[in-house]
Amino acid sequence: MKRPPKTQVQLSPPRLILVMGIAGSGKSELARAILEHVCAVYLDNNFLADAFSPKSRTDERYLAVRENLYAALYRITEENLCIGNSVVLDAPHIRQVQDPGWCKWIQEFARNAGAWMRVIRCYCREKLFRERLEARGEKRDQWKLENWQTFLMQQPPRVPIPFPHLELDTEDPLEANAARAVSYIVEQGEEILTEI
User: Domains in the chain, ordered, with CATH?
Assistant: First the structure.
């Protein structure tokens, strides 16, 4: 039996909702929980990446197209924001958030599209990150598990984020985290552009 649809909040102006964190941080589970309460387009970087490199995020084939994949993701995001659709963008963004140029760009990107940006970082204990990757059994995680310390150096779980954001420990109950995330997303008031 199909459940009746939940009431979803329509956001105006639209929100650019970045749900970020390293692989295994619980960001996709949280993003999907947010979508039960907020009307938004869902974009996962893996949807595009898997079309070109389903088995790896470290091989030459993927690395050669990575920048173009992100450019396509941002273009799709921009088109949706400009027509009034909020977007939940489910992507690690670890490398990007360490680049001051990107941090300034993403804030201006949201503003130029008429959207308010909301950033949510998911994290948990290192042991749980690893257990989640092992349990999901994705081929693209094999290199990470075999080169764990290198992976953590490349993708530090708690890298500083130089603009307003919400931190969520995904060891907490999903329902509680989703409620906190939705409250943060719907909150009125545009964030002030942070000088980077």
Answer: 15-186 (3.40.50.300)
